[in-house]
Amino acid sequence: MQIITNTNIIESRSKWAKRISPVAMLVLLGGFLLNLFSFKNPEYTQYVFLLLMVGFVLAIVSSYLVNRWVREPRADQVLTTTLKKFGKEYVLFNYTTTPPHILITPSRLYVIVVKRQSGQITVRGDKFSRKFSLGRFFRFFAEEGLGVPTAEAENGRGKLKKLLGQQLTGEELPEVSAFIVFIDPNVNLTVIDPVVPIMRTNEIKSFLRQHDRQKVISAALKNQLVEIIGGKYAGEEMEA
């Protein structure tokens, strides 16, 4: 198993998360303290709202960066651990291009959409719903939203196919598929007629073994794909 990860972006985003978080706290604290003075000095009210609004935005940005780039295990770490026992025909790319997670298998390429949400999640077709819980309410500002995973998967497929189409001829283009994986061990999935395959982390191996029995991608084509997707990071891969 080859794993190619852009560690530069992880380090950079992690640093920004750690820088923005204390700034957000200071701005919010400043707004709170200024609010105490605004009772006797109403002219300060507009500055209170300004500080609180800026602090609120910074807190959301910080929370997003912390969840994605600081909190462990990160998405790339989970995928690496899950897939590391596969053979050399498999190559996992993390953050080397858009979409962020791509897997080469013997038969095709997969765009992997990673979600960290926990709790009860129900999928019907391309519609996702998540059961409300008190824990979710208190984690509202600290947790990334579910978004529209199916649209993310299709968008990622489109971007990857466009990237490959710029470098390869039509006959060389391999199949590009996608799947969505929920990596939190506390997630409880109910999936009904999904548009895109949806699974938990412990289901990835059986899914791949079931769908990738036929070898279609040659060694030469695989090397081309590694160069196109991995780019300047292709020489820094690790084997697992």
Structure characterization notes:
The protein is of the alpha/beta class. The protein has a domain at 91-230. It has helices at residues 7-38, 45-70, 75-83, 134-138, 149-165, 204-211, 219-230; strands at residues 2-5, 91-94, 101-104, 108-115, 119-124, 127-130, 175-182, 187-192, 198-200, 238-239. The strands form two sheets. Strands 9-7-4-3-2-1-10 form a seven-stranded mixed sheet, with helices on both faces. Strands 6-5-8 form a three-stranded mixed sheet, with no helix packed on it. A hairpin with a 6-residue loop joins strand 2 and strand 3 (101-104). The longest helix has 32 residues, at 7-38. The termini are close together. The model has no long low-confidence stretch (mean pLDDT 89).
